[in-house]
Amino acid sequence: MKKLLLFLGVMVLFKLTSCDVLDDDSDYSLDNFSLSSGTVLMDVDSYSIKTDNGKVLWPSASNVSVSLLEDSMRVLVNYTILGEATDNDSYDYYVRVNGLSKILTKPVFEFTSETTADVIDSIGDDAVTIVDTWFTDDYLNVEFEYGGGATVHYINLVFDAENPTTEDGAIILELKHNHNGDPYSYLQWGIASFDVSAFQTAEKDTIDFFVRSKGKDGAYNYNQVLTYSYGSASVEESINKQYDTENVSLLQSIQ
């Protein structure tokens, strides 16, 4: 498991423009838009996005340069549905991409007996609220809220080798937050995807994770057991993941 603290921006917004493809008499209005998390699927000179709900979007209109994207990149996509892709088995919807943001992806950070106090301090122990969690392939996705508004914050999912499991054997993973001296001015919102594949073993095909975080009162909250399936037990689950479109205005830089 990697033990390096990765400072990667959670949201890199690509500004887009696009032409109107359907008129207002269509079943799908150009005034409507949806917000979904998903994974980029690259082709030679184009791309599609598989949302965490399992639907595949093909951008009929988008000014996102393919050179800015990578296969398997985790993204938050703002899009307008132009029509159902009834003529193509590979896609579910033709869409206009209105905006695309890169979701922070990181390995789980491990605390060991050799981890220095400075490193632990840099990871932070500030309040953060987990809103939701779900799996996408080998990623544990965490939607969260915190207070801030002025500077870059740091977010990590931590495994403590000195306190590895619950009494029931679930591996403890704690969402850690360093507000970097930023006062609680506004409610902020974000998503991060953490690679948990390093926990896989040949003897098992499922792992229980006990996920938690600390609130403003210093008490642990969320406290959910999540089952990660892989190998022969891996199945594609249908996730009804929805976002409040007002959250777009709450995005702040997270590393």
UniProtKB/TrEMBL annotation:
Q: Taking every annotated instance into account, which residue ranges of this chain make up the domain NigD-like N-terminal OB?
A: 38-103
Domain spans labelled NigD-like C-terminal = 120-213
UniProt superkingdom: Bacteria
Q: Which InterPro entries match?
A: NigD-like_C_dom_sf, NigD-like_N_sf, NigD-like_OB_dom, NigD_C
Under which name does UniProt file this protein? NigD-like protein
Please tell me the species this chain comes from.
Answer: Saccharicrinis fermentans DSM 9555 = JCM 21142
